[in-house]
């Protein structure tokens, strides 16, 4: 990571410039994929899975035996961690359910707001080099809480033609059985337009690479609802001398490992912390399987030494990170200044 000390605050916009993505060239490649799925349905999905994932599938749907096999491959420790995460996510999102509050705004005129579940939702779960089963927890739990009528999951298969066992274990734990072995732009097309095997969905959720992002934008322009066109992962950590350098390093690496275009930033008031965090990043990286991706991500990332927390907040507010972590003594007080 580049280290910048006490920059002029006006110059931080340039210092924190996000990696530029060349989307137009990807768009021109994604359009034919969407059109092919529209025209050729399952046949296109099998062909693209062979071309992009290197797998010859006999079926797109995950069978019951595959769920049972996956469960045997998951360690007890991971099962426990997944269960705890599921309970925590369930508690948080359950609290968002609200009772209908009817208000008489004028004599005989009663208004109220009622939230109803989307009937058919498609969840895209990235696979590839890092199966994001946590994404399935984050999307699947709320969908189950509100009782969406139909929930399907699309995720790319591994080279052995199977879905990563962690994803299948989470799906089984949530009671999700309609899981399909298809990824990339072709998965978005399948959920947007429907095929012989994969039903058309009302709304598509979930992150992905640049191809998936562009595909979601294109089907959205075609009238299909999406959550948002998620970009590369990013995190900004604001830390003072009270911060634990191991925790700060772990927070930065948690996003850096997502992809070479991830962007991570540390703003700190402590020179000592900079040395400690960089040491911990080096130590952690040596132990991680995705070290090459992390190194590429960190080459685009920066540590900035600032005079005080007021300056750090000003820089953060201007940057507006996807994830913001406050590792400071008075975190709640500082959080009130985030805009």
Automatic annotation (TrEMBL):
InterPro entries: Ald_DH/histidinol_DH, Histidinol_DH_CS, Hstdl_DH. Its EC number is 1.1.1.23. Keywords: Metal-binding, Oxidoreductase, Zinc. It is an enzyme of class 1 (oxidoreductase). GO terms for biological process: L-histidine biosynthetic process. The keyword Metal-binding applies. Its cofactor is Zn(2+). Gene3D superfamilies: 1.20.5.1300, Nitrogenase molybdenum iron protein domain (3.40.50.1980). GO terms for molecular function: histidinol dehydrogenase activity; metal ion binding; NAD binding. PROSITE patterns: HISOL_DEHYDROGENASE. GO terms for cellular component: cytosol. NCBIfam families: hisD (TIGR00069). This is Histidinol dehydrogenase. It comes from hydrothermal vent metagenome.
